[in-house]
Amino acid sequence: MAEAYVLVNCDLGAEDEIIAGLKQIEHVKEVHGTFGAYDIIAKVEAESADKLREAITWKIRKMDKIRSTLTLTVVEGQGE
Fold first, then answer.
1. How far, CA to CA in Å, does 63 sit from each of 24, 42, 67, 78?
2. Residue 26 in contact with residue 14, Cβ under 8 Å?
3. What's the domain range around 6?
């Protein structure tokens, strides 16, 4: 199982809309609004690294009102 956390910067006031949209994406398992440098954090899981990359690149990053993302890929087996 491939996992990543995606940090999202979005247009001002678009947080609720983006959170609702992210929750509709199959591989997105958790979504939370945040305070700080980023507006939203999403936990993404997929069967493979390729499926994970596809979900992030073609579904999450292409959403309207998302300005930028930072992806933190989880190291398998570390911290378990």
1. 12, 14, 9, 31
2. no
3. 1-35
**Look-up of token digits 């398992």:** 29
Residue 3 dihedral angles phi and psi, to the nearest 5°: -135, 150
Q: How many domains does the chain have?
A: 1
What's the pLDDT band for 67 if we cut at 50, 70, 90?
very high
Closest CA to 7 of 35, 49, 39: 39
**Residue located via tokens 């001002």:** 12
pTM of the entire structure?
Answer: 0.94
**Can you tell me the distance from the alpha carbon of 30 to that of 44, in angstroms, rounded to the nearest whole number?**
7
Q: Is the model's pLDDT at 50 over the cut of 90?
A: yes
